[in-house]
Design brief:
By secondary structure, the protein is an alpha+beta fold. The protein has three helices and eight strands; from the N terminus they run E-H-E-E-E-E-E-E-E-H-H. It starts with a strand and ends with a helix. The structure holds zinc ion (2 copies).
């Protein structure tokens, strides 16, 4: 849980701000496990609620779509979001809300942002050679004896039938 008590800010006058340090170990962001979250967040009291902005460094393990190896993917989350004050009336524009107890939970916001930052098709390296389509060898770490000339998929089927 990454929650902060911002109740003093809720009662403060507009423009008042608070700086929060984030420094936590492994976190489960719903369906994503990140190794750590580190950074600084500024929370500013504005008319419509609290602006939460800051930069968080993190990393997680991803699986390369070409060679299927897992690798460390470091990334930076740029946060900039308004947290609506509770009881201020529903406004569908603002997804994030300051709790009735004056606390904010950053997990849903971080989770949203992680999904923006991680690649749809992660690659361990832009030049990843991937797996040999025939024997499955990881061509980044070994070479194999297969003939990797392009094989027409229709011919490949024939080859499998006769082989
Ligand atoms: Zn790879
Ligand atoms: Zn091979």
């Amino acid at each position: 849980m990454i929650r902060f008590d911002v109740s003093t800010l809720v009662k403060a006058r507009l423009g008042t701000s608070l700086t929060l340090d984030v420094n936590v170990g492994p976190q489960d962001l719903a369906d994503l496990e990140v190794d750590f979250l580190r950074g600084t967040i500024q929370v500013i009291r504005v008319q419509s609620g609290l602006v939460v902005q800051g930069t968080i460094e993190s990393q997680l393990m991803l699986e390369c779509v070409r060679c299927l190896e897992t690798f460390v993917f470091p990334f930076t989350l740029e946060l900039e979001e308004i947290f609506r004050l509770s009881g201020a009336g529903l406004n569908p524009e603002y997804v994030h809300v300051v709790g009735d107890d004056g606390w904010i939970n950053l997990i849903p916001l971080l989770r949203e942002q992680v999904w923006v930052d991680i690649p749809m098709k992660p690659l361990c390296d832009l030049n990843c050679k991937g797996l040999c389509p025939q024997c499955g060898a990881n061509l980044n770490i070994e070479s194999c004896a297969c003939d990797r000339a392009w094989i027409d998929p229709r011919l490949a089927v024939l080859k499998n039938l006769t082989g």
